[in-house]
Amino acid sequence: MRSLFYLVCSAFVIGLAYWAYKENYKTQVSLREVKELQQQIAQEKETIAVLNAEWAYLNRPDRLRDLVDLNFADLKLIPLLPSHFGDSEMVSYPTPDPYDINAPVSVNSDGGENGGQQP
Amino acid sequence: MTRTPLRPLARIIDARKNGQNPDQIEAAERAKRNQATQQKLRRRAEARLTMLGLVFFLGFIAIGGKMAVLAMREPAEPQMAMTDSRIYSQRADIVDRNGITLATNLITTSLYAQPQMMINPERAAKELVKIFPDLKLKTLLGQFTGKRRFVWVRKKISPEQQQNVHNIGEPGLLFGPREMRLYPNGAMAAHILGGTGFGKEDVRAAELVGVAGVEKYFDERMRDPAQLDKPLQLSIDLTAQATTRRVLEGGMKIMKAKGAAAVLMDVHTGEVVSMVSLPDFDPNERPQPLVKGDPSDSPLFNRAAQGVYELGSTFKLFTAALALDKGLMNENTMIDTKGPIKWGKFKIRDFHNYGSKLSMMDVIVKSSNIGTAHMAQTIGGKAQQKFLGQLGFFEPTSLELTESRHIKPLVPKNWSELSTMTISYGHGIAATPLHLASAYATLSNGGFQVKPTLIKSDRDNLHGERIMSDDTSKVVLRMLRNVVTRGTASFGEVKGYSVGGKTGSADKPKPSGGYYKDRVIATFAATFPTYDPKYVLVLTLDEPSIQAAGEKRRTAGWTAVPVAAELITRLAPILNMRPEVAGNGKVQYTQVKN
Prior knowledge:
Number of strands of chain B: 20
Structural class of chain A: mainly alpha
Distance between the termini of chain A: 99 Å
Radius of gyration of chain A: 39 Å
Number of domains of chain B: 2
Low-confidence stretches of chain B: 83-87, 583-594
Number of helices of chain B: 17
CATH superfamily of the largest domain in chain B: DD-peptidase/beta-lactamase superfamily
Mean pLDDT of chain A: 85
Oligomer: heterodimer
Helix content of chain B: 25-40%
Radius of gyration of chain B: 43 Å
């Protein structure tokens, strides 16, 4: 009975040791992975910073203005002026599509004036 | 093991035969046996003790060994605890009010040399000069062949330059990572941003230190590790700033001015939306300050926040506002404008003769010095001083720029009655355009003090103490509007924005004393729209002149006002302001709407 107890205990200890050994290596692998990921994140962040800087540099007002001047023939962009503001009254209502086949059409036997609703 | 019996039969028989006591044999045997048992137990205990000692010994060896290893090894950072992996950036970004980047960091490379590691210093020097033409061959050779063990060649180099340096193949030329500050918009907000320089330098990194502008004012906050990820948001609107700079530059050229400044401020919050001073500079390549001559000639000089100028007739409104607010006069009160006023050796004249009397409104509209001086006499010097103090003319502004922190307006030491009279129309007091802008903001916003700021605020208004009544503010706005519709600033009319403003032209003082006859500072202080003011604009031109209507014109009405009108035309739509069209049934220019 006692020796069985010893046997079980030592088997348990060996098992624990094996598990600890495994965990140790797993942790080391994870740490290495984390380190790599962090390096990667740092690199990505640096890239983002560079791209942001580049974006800001490419969108600087001086350059945009030069581009607008260069492409005036195509884009015809001019500075925003007070005369560009419109009034809501100046916008006309959309005209209904005369070829809309889904528009409801009322039909009756008269077939005449009162019948067909203009879409 | 053969067990010896306690009473061996043979010996017992022998003992009995010889008449001895057989019990003695048994006792002797028992003693022998006990001894053996004891010896066995002792051995076992000894073995256990040795074993235990060994275990302890090994345990202590293990702990001691680990301690020794830990003590000898270089400490490593705990990797798991490192949550922020942004190890590079050491200075927060600066963005405008819409989040557009104004200043950011970039990793570049620095180039240094360790001459003792060099194989062919002469060749290295020659090749370096080819890559960097501004380096001097002689100096480099001297540094490389001398006794120095370390030489900085370049603090910032581009990747192409780095490749070229690699191509030299000299082992004594080394690179280090280096963070640099980048202002992507160049000179656009130069005076506001200021610039940065390198502080403590190392091969692996260098400190970025603010040297001027907000970079210096907020240096600690910019370098605070806890706030690195939070950009500093300014009240500046980059689009408005770019437009202001563009229009001002054009205006400066047309008016042949030496310099120009403009400040656009929110009347309710004191937020500076754009501030330009020309000539300016590129903060990426900040020029050296002037060693000799007038510092205000340097492009580093911020005319809007650092330059104190006599701002002339723009001050008349303060006199009028005070007279109105004290209830001494109303806009229709007739004021004596017979001139000139003689005061000892001093004479106060008007630009034109305006007859013997004008209403208070017309004194402002026609800009009569004599009329304003009479108003000031009625008010008295004490009240005038107090009011100008409340408007902020005795203190530096609260603007977050290191340069402007100590700029106090110039006021006479001895505030005589003559000072009261001249200051009433803006002579004998010199302030920055920024001071003027914040005072005009107070006139326009219903009479509340505002503190000029460069930091974006989330609130609609940051009103301070009320220093005059709302009614006074309304009358003042009406006066300002009249100056534009029928007074000295008639070129200032911008259709739909109901601009109100006051011109000011002051002769420039000579450094030797007295005033130049042909050099003026022309200022236009405007507020728009007058029915519900949102912004004030102060525009100053330094020594403008233009040939117009057959004459050489220098006054603000001919120089600063047209530029300001163009500026408002361009700025207002950018600032999301719809033009109000009179005749639309909504607004007439004389109406005051709140």
